[in-house]
Amino acid sequence: MRSRNELKEKFHASREWVRKLDKLAELNPGTMEKLHSLAQEYQQKLSCLGLRDWLFIRPQLNLVMLASEGLLWLLLLPFFLFGAINLFPLYALANFSTKNIKDKQFYGAVMFTVAWLAAPLYALLLFTLVCLFARPSVAAIYLAAVFISAFFTMKYFIAVKKWLGKIRYFYFHAVHQPVFTEAMELRNRILEIIKQTEKG
Fold first, then answer.
1. 85, burial (CB in 10 Å: exposed 0-12, middle 13-18, buried 19+)
2. How far is 118 from 126, CA to CA, in rounded Å?
3. What residue segments make up the domains of the chain, in order of their start?
4. pTM for the model
């Protein structure tokens, strides 16, 4: 978990960047407009490739590292499936609640709230179902395992998505995929403008 000091430093760094960008927009609106245009084009290419910016700042990837990580996720797959299968109804309900929400920024908050409110009822239902086939003590242990696995299941899902992103990055870099190359060039141009802004 991030420390309070780390979060505070990130907040101040972000605020400093906002100040610099505001100053750039005021003193050199042409450069600011160019930066905005490049950033939009860069984001479009990342979306097309299914990549995230953080992949471009990681150390050089290699097959051994990717294969080792893949083996780890394969070994942990049964634990993920246990949590995913048992918690799917709760997830489906939370996801359904976002059906009429147009702004995706609110998806996470709405899903969390719905899942949190529905969790006690779902736990009672799950406990009752397990009690039909086992003792209450066994049902209680099973229920505890299900909800403890929720955190792991979420972390596993995110980690595997990142791993797949690394594979895509490695492949695109290896074959010199044209859109990938263009994205790298755009990123370098954006960083160059940012460096010039920092000097200013």
1. exposed
2. 12
3. 4-198
4. 0.75
